[in-house]
Amino acid sequence: MTDVEKTLTLDKKMNEVFDWSDDTTPVRDALWNHFMENNNKDTLKTLDEVKKYTEMPDNEVAGAAEKLLKK
Questions:
Q1: DSSP secondary structure code for residue 20 in this structure
Q2: Of 7 and 49, which is predicted with more confidence?
Q3: Beta partners for 26?
């Protein structure tokens, strides 16, 4: 059960987590897309970057993702 709670924010839609977003993409996918765009579509680099978010406590994911994704 702990693993499910650990990724709860990652599995929610952007507009459910952030009041500034109207995007219905899951946070996990938005992070993936962001990193793919910024590292020349290198899947291995992107996998490494996104892994950090899957390993951090769920209560920290929203803040870290917001710093990265808010335009």
A1: T
A2: 49
A3: 13
d(CA 43, CA 51): 12
Contact 22, 15 (CB under 8 A): yes
Over the range 11-33, which residues count as b (16 or more CB within 10 Å of their CB) and which as e?
ebbbeebbeebeeeebbbebbbe
Residue 62, judged by CB atoms within 10 A of its CB (0-12, 13-18, 19+), counts as: middle
Q: Which residues contact 69 (CB under 8 A, 6 or more apart)?
A: 14, 18, 21, 30, 31, 34
- pLDDT recorded at residue 1: 43
pTM of the entire structure? Answer: 0.87
